[in-house]
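REQUEST FORM: STRUCTURE PREDICTION
Request ID: SP-0412
Submitted by: Lab K.M.
Chain count: 1
Length (residues): 165
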Amino acid sequence: MDILIRALAKLNTAGVEFRACLLSGGPLLSAHKKLSEVLQLGATTIITGWVANPMHFLEKGDIFVLPSLEEGSGSVSLLEAMQAGRCIVASNIDGIPEDISDGYNGLLCSPNDDDSLAEKLTLVIQDQSLRDSLGHNAQNSFELRFSADAFVKNLKIIYGQFGFY
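STATUS: Completed
RESULT:
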């Protein structure tokens, strides 16, 4: 989360207009809020703390950011963002590139690199057609790979290989 906060500070300094709502809980919440304060993000950024149902925020947002330092394929929050058709900017690490194809259904940034994240965020903030295209493709990717219909189709293929279907 500190990588995202630092990237947002770079956007703020560069004059890029944005509003950010960061859903963050756990033991680092106060440190994240303090960093946001030190970097003077109060006018643009809210850090909520733990949220029981994050879908409301996801439905209202334009961009979903996952600046993970480690993450497996099939991250629940990533899949929820894909299903919602959100533009995704995520770290190019571990299993994330299995789900996000850079430039097609999201943008991948270098992990632990606030400059890289700020660059990708600037692209999608300033280019609505890119944002819309990435979000649309993310939703299509979800439907093709992770929806209930895709699950049933793949299950039939597997059972068919064993002669059960």
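NOTES: The domain at 2-161 is CATH 3.40.50.2000 (Rossmann fold).
Reviewed by: T.R.
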